[in-house]
Structures are given as structure tokens and as C-alpha cells.
Specification:
Elements: H1 2-20, E1 32-33, E2 37-43, E3 49-54, E4 60-64, E5 68-77, E6 80-91, E7 99-101, E8 107-111, E9 116-122, E10 127-137, E11 147-151, E12 159-163, E13 182-186, E14 193-194, E15 199-203, E16 210-213, E17 219-224, E18 231-232, E19 235-236, E20 244-251, E21 262-263, E22 269-271, E23 289-291, H2 301-306, E24 313-315, E25 321-326, E26 332-337, E27 350-355, E28 373-377, E29 391-396, E30 402-406, E31 411-417, H3 428-454
Parallel strand pairs: 10-14, 15-21
Antiparallel strand pairs: 1-28, 2-31, 3-4, 4-5, 5-6, 7-8, 8-9, 9-10, 11-12, 12-13, 13-15, 16-17, 17-20, 18-19, 20-24, 22-23, 25-26, 26-27, 27-28, 29-30, 30-31
Helix pairs in contact: 1-3
Protein name: Soluble quino protein glucose dehydrogenase
InterPro entries: 6-blade_b-propeller_TolB-like (IPR011042), Beta-prop_PDH (IPR054539), Quinoprot_gluc/sorb_DH_b-prop (IPR011041), SMP-30/CGR1_Lactonase (IPR051262)
Keywords: Signal
């Protein structure tokens, strides 16, 4: 009899869990998840979702290209997440990537190819009051279209905006006054600022789409998508060079920040990934920079490595890092790698992690080729980009779960550790508390079912 009761309880529990945890199925092969992790598909049929952000009420905001900004209420129990009551809060098809929300939930920022807008936002009502105010303009280019936003949590009233190049190899970006291929700093309380009015944090960055601020030390990091179809001394070397870059820009609040206003090489210098495939490479190593001058490029390598700021880490070419998110203690930096479009063997198409030490720096050295550890990947990249997800935006909820948008497939995934444990382990205590509450509620329900079974 006892075994029968236990079996009945197990069946009821499984059915209850299944009923309360809707399952979505992708149209492509199930993703490959690293050992110790779980990933669930929680939203579909979005219009090219890019940037993600949570407000102070725990609502998930999503930039949908050609549509605007949508919001979801999040109903969850550990890894069982349900996105409900979708609502369009900003109707503007020109918004295409960047999004930030102030900590008090009263201000929303979003970007187009040319402008940054500020909205009066009510997180309780999931609505904006009036039209957005243009606070930054003059950013239009014919090349890159994303304008990533980072609202500093360590330096008051500082908004970082990353603007890419006007073309693949944009020679005009050698002029710092032009504003292309730069990260600039703005006061978000001011309206009508031109991009070139902002203070330059870094330049010589082809397309630094990913931006993040270390939660402990406050150091600013960017992930740069490097140029395509590179040649050196008349030879094509684009299959395995140049590398994508993780660059360090120092601490915004540090008046003595020696990295402020540094040039990171583009369009003259590029990160080395596979030195054996670079003509006249000499002693160039992984993580150093090389030149692509029309003739005798190797003669300019010394300039690239003495007069330009080297990347802190390099990643495999064409992986296309799009977003960066630190965990609470800054021990792990998660990256969305949107993936290649012109590489013979597709690469990227994953969410990966880089380990950081107590000094606020990656644990791997600058010559490492193994700093990235994939946690969520496409199971068959040979089918990419046509039949696979392409990671774009990343965002943390308050329970330490990481959300990822896939713009190509119109989806959102949630990533946790196994059994629904918080991916951000420093938020595990709050997640565990929630788990205990949910478990107690479930036990109470099951107890009632036991009594009903005997009656």
C-alpha cells in the first residue's frame, strides 16, 4: 500500500509540474547544453528580438526590431519560467538594439541607428508617458546599425554609447573627431547632444557591440566584432584572422584612468588569432596586433604593438560577440556569440563564459585561445545560420537566471544550472528560499491529495 501511495504521489507531482511548466519546441534540432546546465525555450514568434532588460518590478523588456519595445510579466518557479501578458510599450520600428532601464524603474533608454531616446517609464503599469525625448543624435552610418547602451551603476549620470564603423574597413575612423568606431560617455539628463559631443572613452573599435561594467571594481569591457574579408600583402587571410576582441577600458570614476581615450587599432591594426596564416608574421603571437597596409604590412606591425592598445583577450574570428553580462560578483562574464556568416566552417552560435579573478581581470592570459567555455550551443552548426538559433541579447532576473534572445528565430531562452539552480551562484540563496517556499506549498498540496486518496 505504501509503495502504491508513493507511486501515486510521484505521478501526481510529475503531472502537476508538467501542467504548470509549459514546454515550447524549436523548429530546429534541440540545443546542446553543457554538463551542469539547463536551457528552456520560453518565448517564440517575436520580431527579431535583440536587447533585453529587466525593470525593478521583474518585468522583461525586449527590443523587437521593426516593431518597438515589448514587455512580459514573468511567472516562474525555479527553472520553470512562463512569459505572460505580452504588451507593446513603445511602438517605434526604428528601435533596433540598445536598451537600458534605470534602477528606480522610472526611465527607459533605447536606441536607433541615429539616436538615443529617453522615456518616462512606469514599471508598475508597464507604460511610457508621452513620446521619447531624443538625448543623443548624429550617429547614422551606412555600415553597422547597432548603438549599444550601458548605464553605469558605478558612476552617477553616465551613459555609454557604442557606435560602429561606416563600412567594413572605414578609413575615416582614423580621425577621432569623426565619431565612428568609438565608445563615448554622456550625461543622460541632457537632451539634444550630438554623438561627437560625448567624451571619448575608447576609439579604434570596429563594432564594439558588447558592453559591460564589472560589478565590483567598475571596470568597463567591450567585445569588438572585427573586420571581414581581410587581406595582407595581397593574400586573403580572413578565414582565421583577425580575431574578435575583448577590450578593457578602465574604471569610469577613476580620474587617473590611463586607458581613457586609448586607440584599439582599427582600421590599421587587427588582433592575431592564427599567426601561421599571416604572411610575414615574424614573431607575432596570438593576442598581438598586425597591420594590413597595402605594401610591406609587416613593417607596420611594430607600430600596431607599441602605439595601439592591445586586446585583453581574443576569440575565434567570425564568432560575433553581441552582448556581455557579468554575474553578481564579477567572477563570470557571459557572452552571446551570434555566429559567422562568411566562414567555411560556421562558428559561434552559442552562449559562452569567461572566468574572471579577484583582480577584476580574466584568469586566462592574453595569448589564450581557450578562454571561452560554451554552455549553450547549436547541436549542428553545419546547418547554421539557416536552421539554428543566433544569440543576441542577455539579461539577468532577480533569481539569478540568464535570459537570451535569438533574433534570427524570434525566441527567448532561459539558462540555469541543473535542476533549476541559479546560474548566478551568488543569488542562489534567494533562489533556494523561493524553492523552499514552493516545495512547502507542493507538499501541502500532496498531503491533501493523500488524505483524499484514503477518503
Amino acid at each position: 500500500m505504501l509503495n502504491q501511495i508513493l507511486f501515486t504521489l510521484a505521478v501526481l507531482q510529475a503531472r502537476a509540474a508538467a501542467a504548470n511548466c509549459p514546454s515550447l519546441t524549436a523548429s530546429y534540432p534541440a540545443p546542446s547544453v553543457a554538463s551542469g546546465y539547463e536551457a528552456r525555450l520560453v518565448a517564440q514568434n517575436l520580431n527579431k528580438p535583440r536587447g533585453l532588460s529587466f525593470d525593478n518590478k521583474g518585468n522583461l523588456l525586449v527590443v523587437e526590431r521593426e516593431k518597438g519595445i515589448s514587455a512580459f510579466k514573468v511567472d516562474s518557479s525555479d527553472s520553470c519560467v512562463s512569459l505572460q501578458d505580452k504588451k507593446t510599450i513603445v511602438e517605434d520600428g526604428s528601435l533596433n538594439h540598445g536598451i537600458e532601464v534605470s534602477d528606480d524603474g522610472k526611465t527607459l533608454y533605447a536606441s536607433t541607428i541615429d539616436e538615443v531616446f529617453k522615456y518616462k517609464y512606469d514599471s508598475g503599469k508597464l507604460s511610457v508617458n508621452g513620446k521619447g525625448e531624443s538625448i543623443i543624435n548624429g550617429m547614422r552610418t551606412d555600415g553597422t546599425v547597432t548603438r549599444t547602451l550601458l548605464l553605469s551603476r558605478k558612476s552617477k549620470n553616465k551613459l555609454l554609447v557604442s557606435r560602429g564603423s561606416d563600412e567594413n574597413i572605414d578609413l575615416s575612423s582614423v580621425d577621432i573627431n569623426g565619431g565612428e568606431s568609438q565608445i563615448r560617455i554622456f550625461d543622460p539628463s541632457k537632451a539634444g547632444q550630438k554623438f561627437t559631443d560625448g567624451e571619448t572613452l575608447a576609439w579604434g573599435l570596429r563594432n564594439a557591440v558588447g558592453l559591460a561594467e564589472h560589478p565590483d571594481g567598475g571596470g568597463v569591457w567591450s567585445a569588438d566584432n572585427n573586420a571581414d574579408n581581410i587581406e595582407r600583402n595581397g593574400m586573403e587571410i580572413h578565414e582565421n584572422n583577425p580575431a574578435e576582441e575583448l577590450n578593457y577600458h578602465g574604471v569610469l570614476s577613476d580620474d587617473q584612468n590611463s586607458l581613457k581615450n586609448k586607440n584599439y587599432g582599427y582600421p590599421l591594426c587587427y588582433g592575431v588569432w592564427e599567426p601561421s596564416e599571416i604572411p610575414s608574421a615574424g614573431r607575432l603571437e596570438v593576442g598581438q596586433q598586425f597591420a594590413i597596409a597595402a605594401e610591406n604590412a609587416s613593417n607596420q606591425d611594430a607600430f600596431c604593438n607599441s602605439d595601439r592598445q592591445a586586446p585583453r583577450l581574443v576569440f575565434q574570428p567570425h564568432t560575433s560577440p553581441i552582448d556581455l553580462k557579468f554575474d553578481t560578483k564579477g567572477e563570470n562574464l557571459y557572452l552571446s556569440l551570434r555566429g559567422s556568416w562568411n566562414k567555411e566552417d560556421p562558428v559561434g552560435y552559442s552562449v559562452s563564459v569567461v572566468k574572471f579573478g579577484s583582480d577584476g581581470q580574466p584568469t586566462e592570459g592574453s595569448t589564450s585561445t581557450s578562454a571561452l567555455s560554451p554552455i549553450l550551443s547549436n547541436s549542428n552548426t553545419d546547418e547554421c545560420p539557416g536552421s539554428c538559433f543566433r544569440p543576441a541579447g542577455l539579461a539577468w532576473d532577480k533569481k539569478g537566471r540568464l535570459y537570451m534572445s535569438s533574433d534570427a528565430t524570434g525566441e527567448i531562452y532561459v539558462i540555469t544550472q541543473s535542476s533549476g539552480k541559479a546560474l548566478d551562484t551568488h543569488l542562489r540563496a534567494s533562489a533556494a528560499s523561493s524553492t523552499r517556499q514552493n516545495t512547502a506549498a507542493m507538499l501541502a498540496t500532496l498531503t491533501a491529495l493523500v488524505f483524499a486518496y484514503f477518503l
